[in-house]
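Feature request, filed as a ticket because there's no other form

It would be nice if the structure record came with a short human-readable summary line next to the tokens. Right now we just get the raw output. Example of a typical job, pasted below so the devs can see what we mean:
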Amino acid sequence: MKLFASSLLLAACALAAPAFAAMPTQPSLKVTTLDGKPYDLASQRGRWVIVNFWATWCAPCIKELPDISHFVATHPNVTAIGIAYDDTDPADIRAFLQKHPVTFPVAQVTMDKPLKDFDEPVGLPTTWLIGPDGKVAKHFTGPITSASLSAAIGH
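Raw output as currently delivered:
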């Protein structure tokens, strides 16, 4: 009887759980950056794009930001967009970026309004590498390095 009750409870939980659509292989991303400019991932076709989810309070995120900036600066066929996945006031994120400057645009996405074509990060940092064809080439959970990016891109 206990096994039956457990099975019934498990089935009920599965039915009650929200159904999430799989992330598209060619995601779209249209956001306004913290400096007020529009950003459209589709306009980056032909280049590799690093889509990096981070937060001001995330120590591994802060550590990897200079590495991503350097990688983008030294690889002309690579660009990046930072997604501050953070409920912090935008002015505080801008102040953070004054202390930790990056070479790529940053947009804020709050946790209550996630991006529709990207899976919500289960931890930060989370990065998607988008290929020149606009398709997801690699998904990273945790900090990325120049070496991991080079390996994924094939440089």
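Something like this underneath would help us a lot:
The chain is about 30% helix and 25% strand.
The first helix runs from residue 2 to 16.
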